[in-house]
Amino acid sequence: MNRTVIIAFLVLVAAVSSLAATLITNSRASGKPALTEEQGAAREKFFGSGKELPPIKDGQEMRPRW
């Protein structure tokens, strides 16, 4: 086989496998929500709420101790 034919065949195989992986991933993700209410509550309890942090008072930002 010619080198050009082999490279074209490998590119075609990579494109088809990428398309298949994308279609499989998208079909699974669209069926159900990301997190249930219970999982969302557990995540919020562990990581904290999604609210922004309060502003830093009097310029007291974190500084190294050295």
UniProtKB/TrEMBL annotation:
<dbReference type="InterPro" id="IPR020065">
    <property type="entry name" value="Conjugal_tfr_protein_TrbK"/>
</dbReference>
<protein>
    <submittedName>
        <fullName>Entry exclusion protein TrbK</fullName>
    </submittedName>
</protein>
<keyword id="KW-0732">Signal</keyword>
<dbReference type="InterPro" id="IPR024475">
    <property type="entry name" value="TrbJ/K_C"/>
</dbReference>
<feature type="compositionally biased region" description="Basic and acidic residues">
    <location>
        <begin position="54"/>
        <end position="66"/>
    </location>
</feature>
<feature type="region of interest" description="Disordered">
    <location>
        <begin position="46"/>
        <end position="66"/>
    </location>
</feature>
<dbReference type="Pfam" id="PF10907">
    <property type="entry name" value="DUF2749"/>
</dbReference>
<feature type="domain" description="Type IV conjugative transfer protein TrbJ/K C-terminal">
    <location>
        <begin position="5"/>
        <end position="66"/>
    </location>
</feature>
<feature type="signal peptide">
    <location>
        <begin position="1"/>
        <end position="20"/>
    </location>
</feature>
